[in-house]
Design a protein that fits this description.
By secondary structure, the protein is mainly α. The protein folds into 2 domains: about 90 residues, Rna Polymerase Sigma Factor, Chain: A (Orthogonal Bundle), CATH 1.10.1740; about 80 residues, Arc Repressor Mutant, subunit A (Orthogonal Bundle). It is built from 8 helices and no strands. Helix 2 crosses helix 4, helix 5 crosses helix 8 and helix 6 packs across helix 8. The chain is elongated and about 80 Å long. The protein starts with a helix and ends with a helix. About 20% of the residues are buried.
């Protein structure tokens, strides 16, 4: 069977044609998805996005032409992978790595919690793509080269955006700290 014949069968609702596409292209689609998600998602997430690509193929079969199905699957895989990353960034619980030790005073704990809330607000208020770059680097532990490759940007641009993000955070945090000191002195 070839792509054109399988697509014609898929358009008529033939599930065996879908299985044929999965058999033929799942390794390829999995490689595309894995290249984007591997450093920040679990293997199960990669498998789920890969399956979603074939669900999309099934749902959009009527509109497709058999000219370049491999390219279509690649575009869908990249799009769904990036969408999964964006969803994860939006719900990222930034306060999970805060550990309050028993010997800390309540005041210190509250101050640290306030500072963490301020950092979270500042990171979420960054414009795109700066916010995504910052979260990928500091919270997903992706390297500059991986971020640059996945976001199709120059590694120097990524480094510059990270540096500016740190400077922005440092500036805002020092202003917040100074404001607190002034209010304590009153």
């Amino acid at each position: 069977m070839n792509d054109a014949k399988a697509l014609a069968l898929l358009k008529s609702g033939d599930q065996e044609a879908l299985e044929w596409f999965i058999d033929k292209y799942s390794a390829y689609v999995g490689t595309v998805v894995n290249s984007i998600l591997a450093s920040s998602m679990t293997h199960e997430d990669v498998e789920e996005v890969t399956a979603d690509v074939f669900v999309t193929l099934w749902q959009s079969a009527e509109k497709l032409v058999p000219l370049n199905l491999k390219g279509y699957l690649s575009r869908v895989a990249r799009s769904l992978s990036m969408q999964r990353l964006r969803e994860r960034v939006q719900v990222l619980p930034l306060d999970e790595d805060i550990l309050i030790l028993d010997e800390d005073s309540v005041f210190d704990s509250l101050e640290r919690e306030d500072q963490d809330n301020e950092i979270r607000k500042l990171v979420y208020s960054m414009p795109q793509p700066d916010k995504e770059i910052f979260l990928r680097f500091y919270y997903y532990c992706q390297s500059v080269s991986v971020i640059a490759n996945q976001m199709q940007m120059n590694p120097s641009t990524i480094k510059t955006k990270l540096k500016r993000g740190r400077e922005r955070l440092r500036y805002y945090l020092s202003n917040i700290k100074n404001d607190r000191r002034r209010s304590e002195c009153r």
